[in-house]
Amino acid sequence: MANALIALIQPACGGEAISQAHQGVLSALRDTGLALCLFEGEAGSGYLLDDLRRFLELHRPKGVILLPPLSAVAGIAELCREAGCRPIRLTPDALDGSALSLCSNDRQAAADMTQYLIALGHQRIGFVAGSEADRAARERELGYLDALATQGLDRGANLVAESDGSFASGQAAGHLLLEVSPRPTAIFAASDELAAGVLHAAHEQGISVPLKLSVAGFGDSPVASQIWPQLTSMRLPFGEMGFAAAIELITSEAAVPQPVEFFGSLVRRSSTGPVV
User: Fold this and answer.
1) For the chain, which domains are there?
2) Which of 29, 56, 109, 268 is at 20 to 30 A from 142, Cα to Cα?
3) Inter-residue contact 218 to 248 (CB < 8 Å)
4) Is the pLDDT of residue 240 over 60?
5) For every residue of 151-181, which 3-state class applies, written as one string?
6) Which pTM value belongs to this model?
7) Element (H, E) at 263
């Protein structure tokens, strides 16, 4: 039946955020007669918009939920609208435009994590940044810098290590930060995978976590509770955002609503502790 579908437009590799969004959308669609269909694409692909156009013309969904980083691709919301599908974007920060944005406020979440480490007594806090092309990772770095500035703490360039988002690059960044003098007493990473790399680097250098070094991640992915010590992380509200996006598509025809903000929650585990 025409318009009996909600489409979720997602990257091929999105991890826990995608899983949570799926569950939120499916929960909202239960008993509605609507079904979920999926489209996978890559933000940097030259074929993305053409492939998505063909998908939308074939399936004609009632509405489209765009997950990051695809939600920020230029022209993607307009393409959905031209195909007769109302788009809603899930984003790490508020986006301009006529399509509704549900924002996870990654910058505020990262500031909250940094403030938590400061409250534990840490004054030299290193940061492992994600890929420069990752909008969410950039927001998280800004949140880290915001919190340090608010407290008047050192935010020198030698406390920020770059990465490509992989475990191996997190491990390399961890080694780099642990060679800084004076050494950071805490390291916050832009993802749990990066933080796992930092934990590995600390183990290789014989640095006890959390006795001599606190390590925190971001995203509360399954790895956060599967490694040792279990990782303190920031859980993002993608389940709630997926649910809210689907409900909005089912119940509302609003054309230009204001962005809706959601907020992450801190999950404390054994990888962080007070300065000794």
Assistant:
1) 5-104+236-263 (3.40.50.2300), 106-235 (3.40.50.2300)
2) 268
3) no
4) yes
5) HCCCCCHHHEECCCCCHHHHHHHHHHHHCCC
6) 0.93
7) none
- What pLDDT is stored for residue 44 in this prediction? 83
User: What angle in degrees, to the nearest 10, is found between the helix axes of 135-151 and 106-119?
Assistant: 40
DSSP category for residue 70: G
Helix (H, G, I), strand (E, B) or coil at 45: coil
* Virtual torsion, Cα 79, 1, 14, 48, nearest 10 deg: -30
Tokens of 175: 């080694």
CB contact at 8 A, 90 and 33: no
For residue 256, pLDDT beyond 70: no
Helix intervals (H) in the chain:
16-29, 48-59, 76-82, 106-119, 135-151, 167-178, 192-204, 223-226, 238-251
Sequence-distant (6+) residues with CB within 8 A of 261 are: 94, 103, 105
Structure token pair of residue 107:
């910058």
> Six-digit token pair at 172?
């390399």
- Taking each helix axis as running N to C, give the angle between helix 16-29 and helix 238-251, from 0 to 180 degrees, rounded to the nearest 10: 40
| Interacting residues of 246 by C-beta distance below 8 A, sequence separation 6+ | 6, 24, 25, 28, 29, 65
Provide the 3-class DSSP secondary structure of residue 114: helix
Condensed to tens digits (0 to 9), the pLDDT of residues 120-170 reads 999 999 999 998 888 999 999 999 999 999 999 988 889 999 999 999 999
Using left for φ > 0, alpha for ψ between -120 and 50, and beta otherwise, residue 139 falls in alpha
